[in-house]
Amino acid sequence: MTTPAAAPPDTDDLATIADGGRKNTLGFVIRLVARIPFLVIATRLYGAESLGRFASALVLIEIVALICSLGEKRGLAQRLSEGAGENRAAETNLVYDGILLALLYSAVAAAVLLVFPEPMFPNGMNGAWDIWLVATIPAFAVTEILLAAQAYRFDIATTVRARAIIEPWTISIGAGVFFYLPGTRESGLALAFIASIYAGLLTALWPFLRSYGLPKNWQPRPGAMLAMSARAFPLVGADAIERGTRLLDIFILGLFAPPSAVGIYYAAQQIASLPQKLKTSFEPILSPVITKNLRIGNMEAIAAQVRQVGFWIIAVQLGIALVLGVPGEAVMGLWGPDYVAGTAALAFLLAAEVVASMAVVSESVLVYIARKRNLAISVGIIALQAGLTVALIEAAGRFGLGKGYEAAAAAGALMIALATSSLVKALLLKHLLGAPVSNWRWPLAHAAAAAVVVGYAFTWLPEWIELLIGVPAVLGTYAFIIWRRGFDDADKVLFRKQVVPDPEPELS
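Now predict its structure.
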């Protein structure tokens, strides 16, 4: 008896995901343009040591803020779909429950870090104002909830404005301004980051108030909020660990390596994190679609969506990794001669983002159908990463290989951990859905091989030719082959004109 073919993704769902992903991909491009001025200012004006101390401080801030947001980036969609139905007023009140709870947790966390700031600054502070980085915790947590609420109503444009335009341009401009203002130079990076987070909050708040309005007949319910906290724990843990895998390496480097090594690694990470931002382009719009299919029990459609979106993500990520990685030495050299030592770290970090794509897409479903198992896997993965990072950094130090190799050791540990995570989570999701979920297609290898050959030829030429002509040549070669041999008609919906109308903002 023949096995029936897997059902194709629902056309409306696929169009919705593609439309949201397309908007956020535009945001990714804008974010790339906006990130460059900040990196130039941070590396050239402030230097590797100041950048390294700043990066070490951000590790704890980002993790704590993510925990205080209670996993609402993905969990809010499920809470709203289960608890509000079509009642817009009930939706609004549920969102404010999450905001209040996030503010309470954020206030406690910020107070604790004000009293005990040492974990934020393993290599010391750049200036006295650095301590006020704790003020970004409540703003970051609330912004996550506001953007998730807007995404539930398929408003992705607000996320693009806040995360891809306002925040990166604010930190870039702020870093330059604070460097030249009397009394703020030492803490310029920290003050610029604080300004960017609050600018992003205000950008998200205005459309949220237009769409949801103020709560009606709402009052805090301690019992319900406790239940919400308990239910959110597996999702919070998964989010914190997923983000922690991208920050643990910096934290460990801060403990075992000098600040300059952390600064070099951070510069490489900021370039490599661009593909990471790209894959999160689909998360806000994917969650409502997944929760809808879970509610009706359509597991086949979910598996098809995972395969489709997973391929979109890995195809674009691999192209970005090749464009940035093949001329890696020239790319790192843009920030100054000291940063060329981070070329190997950049290569490992870009590879890590490619192999992580399957884990991220799988987790977007596992957080709803296997929260505890997903959390257990994530805990095991971050423990593996921690052990590998410490072992490889100490080995590089023991052999006296230098700060570039120490940075590369941390990046290599991350790549191995994320590859393991992708394999394990994809196998678990395949078992639970009863359908294949792999995002791999062989044309990816064919396109990558051709792009590497073209890019390698340009490495023999002067760096300005390598960057100005070689980078477009690599991208063009990869894009041509992957479009002709890798993308079918269903994939090409990602690049078509908008097919899902934007909802009109409504007042509750």
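The CA atoms of residues 22 and 213 lie 28 Å apart.
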